[in-house]
Amino acid sequence: MAQYAELKAQIAKLQAQADQVRQAEIDKVIEEIRSKIDEYGLTAQNLGFAGAARRGRPPRKEPLPPKYLDPKSGNTWSGRGKPPKWISGKNRERFLIDKA
Predict the structure, then answer these.
(1) To 5 degrees, how large is the angle CA 12–CA 14–CA 18?
(2) What tens digit of pLDDT does each residue of 82-94 get?
(3) Rounded distance, CA 79 to CA 88, Å?
(4) Most CB contacts within 10 A, which of 2, 19, 95, 96?
(5) Are 100 and 83 in contact (CB under 8 A)?
């Protein structure tokens, strides 16, 4: 059993050495890459790291204009999404905003 414990200790020691050597190599490579980026004026987009294209519908630039108006409170609704309480279950034509 003493051999097994000795081998495990050697493995741990070698693993620690390997981790140190790897980190030193990584630091050197990062330094080289940074110097090349500075030298050539590269951007993330040049390197293909620009943000991935978003999926789905693009975000709206501005809110939709109101289509319905509550004459009592003055609240408006665009007609999209969940209807507000003041219009739900009622004839919506009564609340239409005139476009004239």
Answers:
(1) 115
(2) 999 999 888 989 8
(3) 11
(4) 95
(5) no
